Amino acid sequence: MGKIIAVVNQKGGVGKTTSAVNLTATLQEQGKSVLLCDFDPQANATSGLGVEKRKAKHTVYDVIINGIPAANAVVTTKFGDVLPSTPELAGAAVELLKSL
């Protein structure tokens, strides 16, 4: 059975993204299957795994707003798989509220 590891802290600048990216790469190097889900509009975890945040075919924004299956948005890299984010995610909350 898989394990879920969440890297969470309310304060910014404490190394959440760096820790998540490095943990992903280390576990991948050890032969583990890893999926890093990037839900930050800055998309630094996405770019940290080598994915250009504005060039991903589908992102977590598409999953939330457009109903794209998450599996269709996953990008495979040599450092691990990533569900990429995009700066457009910053406006998702407003779009979701409009749909109510």
Overall shape: it is globular
List the strand order in the largest sheet: 1-3-2
Based on DSSP secondary structure assignment, what is the total number of beta strands? 3
Number of helices: 5
What class, by secondary structure content? alpha+beta
**Please, what is the average pLDDT?**
93
Helix coverage percent: 25-40%
Q: Radius of gyration over alpha carbons?
A: 14 Å
Terminal Cα span: 37 Å
What would you call the quaternary organization?
single chain
Helix-strand pattern: HEHHHEEH
How would you sum up this structure, described in words?
This protein is of the alpha+beta class and 100 residues long. Helix content is 37%, strand content 10%. The protein is built from five helices and three strands. The chain has helices at 16-29, 44-48, 60-66, 70-73, 92-98, and strands at residues 35-37, 75-77, 80-83. Strand 2 (75-77) and strand 3 form a beta hairpin. The longest helix has 14 residues, at 16-29.
Summarize the structure.
This protein has helices at residues 16-29, 44-48, 60-66, 70-73, 92-98, and strands at 35-37, 75-77, 80-83. It has 100 residues and is an alpha+beta fold. A hairpin with a 2-residue loop joins strand 2 (75-77) and strand 3 (80-83).
Secondary structure elements and pairings:
Layout: H1 16-29, E1 35-37, H2 44-48, H3 60-66, H4 70-73, E2 75-77, E3 80-83, H5 92-98
